[in-house]
Amino acid sequence: MISRIWAGLLVVALVTAGCGDDADEPEAAIVETVDLDKVPTVAPPIELPTPNSMPTPTATPTPTVPSEPTPPPLPELLVWPTEPPLEWPRTPDEAAAGLAQQVARGERAAVPRPAVQSEMTATAELPRLAEDGSPFGLATTIYMQQVQLDDGTLAWVVISAQSDDIVVEFPAVGELLADGTLVRGEGNGFEGTIVFQVEDQDGLLGLALAQGGALGQNLPFEISLPFDQRPASGDWATLTGYTDSAVDGSLSSLTMLPMRLVDGS
Q1: I need a surface site. Which of 80, 115, 123, 249 has the fewest CB within 10 A?
Q2: What are the residues whose beta carbons fall under 8 Å from the beta carbon of 215, sequence distance 6 or more?
Q3: pTM of the model
Q4: What is the Cα–Cα distance from 190 to 252, expressed in whole angstroms?
Q5: Structural domains of the chain sorted by starting position, each given as residue range(s) with its CATH number in brackets
């Protein structure tokens, strides 16, 4: 009987062992470890820009308005006006008209055409006069400049008048000799005659006739122009060359250049 009991226990033990092998063993849980020394306990501070590191705001540029150029003072050498007038010309047209009236004595020249201005300089054409009094052609081109007077007001003056029919190559602007100035150039006039004269603010100093071309054809000329020297050397003067119309004596061509008297003694 005891043998049977041991046999039964052995069977039970075998059965229990077999069941244990077949059962699925539970998977071991994976636990991640954390290094507490590496865990930040306080959030890092936020770096704010310092005044030196802050970008400089770009200023809006202020538009610059170009300043008007200041006209030069009254030049020492000019051809009109040669002495202070009752009223200074305020426009180039007034200056051109003033020259025409003075040189042509009111009747021997036409009214200048409208002036063409470029900032502080201007030009105007002075035409010839036909027999019936109508303007035609070109007697001279008037060159003008805006100046600032001593009282600060602005005015226009004539610095020269030049004609293609009377071209003066010598002397250059600035000097004339008292004992007879050589005037050289090319030009044309009625019967080839061109009148040259030197004058200052006190009146006529000298006069001579040059012989050039005729019928609109320029030919070379060269003359000696004697004149009386005023007491003071270095004074202003004007060298003028002109031709008149054979029909009515009106101004046909005109060249006026500012000069300075030089004592030839």
Answers
A1: 249
A2: 188
A3: 0.73
A4: 9
A5: 92-262 (2.60.40.2550)
Instruction: Report H helices in the chain.
Output: 2-22, 92-104
Q: How far apart are CA 261 and CA 201, in angstroms?
A: 12
Q: State the residue for tokens 């699925």.
A: 24
For residue 20, pLDDT over 70 is answered with no
Residue 77: other Cβ atoms inside 10 A: 15
Query: Residue 20: enclosing H or E segment and its boundaries?
Result: helix 2-22
Contact 102, 95 (CB under 8 A): no
Q: List the end-to-end C-alpha distance of the chain, in Å, as a whole number.
A: 180
Which residue, 119, 120, 165, 118, is CA-closest to 141?
A: 165
Helices (H), 25-105: 92-104
- The pLDDT of 195-199, averaged and rounded, is 93
CB distance 133 to 228 below 8 Å: no
Residues 152-195 have pLDDT tens digits of 999 999 999 999 999 999 998 877 777 788 999 999 999 999 99
Q: Tokens for 54?
A: 């802050």
- Please state, in angstroms and rounded to a whole number, the distance separating the CA atoms of residues 143 and 204: 23
Tokens of 124: 């105007």
Cα 244 to Cα 189: distance, rounded to the nearest angstrom: 8
Supply φ then ψ for residue 17, to 5 degrees.
Answer: -65, -40
**What three-state secondary structure class fits 99?**
helix
Q: Is 145 exposed, middle or buried (0-12, 13-18, 19+ CB in 10 A)?
A: buried
Is residue 171 reached through a cis peptide bond, with omega within 30 degrees of 0 on the bond before it?
A: yes
